[in-house]
Amino acid sequence: MSSGSTLTADAGLVIGTISYLSPEQVERGVADARSDVYASGIILFELLTGKKPFEGESAIQVAYKHVHDDVPLPSTLSGNVPPAVDALVRRATARDADLRPRDANVFLREVQATREPAPTSPSENFTTSIPAQVPHTAASPPPPVSEIAMSEPVAKKSAASTASQSPRGKRARKRRTTRNRSIAALLAIALGGWLWYVTVGPGASVAAPSLLGLSIDEATQEATTAGLKIDIKSRAYDEQIPEDHVISSSPAGGAQVDSGSTISIVVSKGAERFVVPTLTGLSLAEATNALSDLSLKISTLAEEYDSAIPLGYIVSSTPAAGQKVKRATTIKVVVSKGVEQMSIISYVNKSSDQALSELTDAGAKVISKNVYSNTVAPGMVVSQNPDGPANIEKGAKVTISISQGPALIKVPNLAKMTSALATKTLEDAGFNNYKINILKAKGPGKVVGQTPKAGSMVKPGTLIVVDIY
User: Fold this and answer.
1) What DSSP element (H or E) covers 263?
2) Where would you tag: which of 278, 279, 328, 436 has the fewest CB atoms within 10 A of its CB?
3) CA Rg value for the chain
């Protein structure tokens, strides 16, 4: 499995290379300073043996081994590892975090302790005993470096052991001791440097701050304080987070990240809203297209007559034009049924009162005028425009002419006229019904009186009596 394989714990709070994750990180997604010591122990094992302690075909397999298996002693893979270093690796990689050095400083002191020369003398013959590789518990923790057991051999000296006390054997043993001490010193220097780098140096990891809900300036300040940088990855609409505030961050708050690394954030554009366009006067098809372009829907709320909006076109909308609404909001519209129609009948020769009442109740705008009529009785309708039966727009004008009876005619003044002239004057004025009375045959022959008197207004056909003397 690649060394770069990673495992992410629940909620994205712990992200790391699987080969160096501690058991508690794998099981519970939690980490502290002892988790760093565990990773340091794995690196020390890798430096000593040239390989990782646990391998597998998948990250899950490796994680399982971290939780259920002890890290092997380096000496089982490399014969040149001193017992003290074996014990150091055993303690640093204990599965129980309580059995490890409590932090990097304590671990560093134990690393440094392996560099101190062990007390030896030419006359002493020691063998170092390494505890067996068995699962440890809180009752039997792996011994610290300072507690490595040193015991004398119990067997009698053999010829080989006697030979090892010869000058040649002593020189060989001295060379081995010098070599082992040199290896341990180099390892201690390398591991100490690495511990400095990851704990207080440039490689130290920090906890990513929680940026959710902060403004861009506030998030930048929080990241700067933690030694991190901010990068706005994208912007998105959000119903809860105000505009220009952080919706999410990656890595999330609480994740361990390298000092100086960059946190990507998604910034809110505020609540997504669409302005309702003006739909009045549009056809349903035009309104549907206009709303679809804005991710809005349409439905017909009602139909009503409208004298200004043609049939099938939109009269109004709810919400009204200009209001802001959420995506996929349904806009309800009222559609015109066109101008409302009404039916009328003919009221000619009918009572003007009836015509006025019925036409007004039907919704017509009635205009009436009085006219003289020699044929239609007073108070009756002489004419109607438009005449019925007919269908007209509701609210349209209907004009009716109401008879006042025949027109009155002014009686002309006939005084001192001859009989012939008086007759002609009456006929020219419209009077065809007249009577000439001759009072004296041998008189001057002129009008001396008339009934009705001159200037009277009378109906056509009224009898005019003329007296001539």
Assistant:
1) strand 262-268
2) 328
3) 59
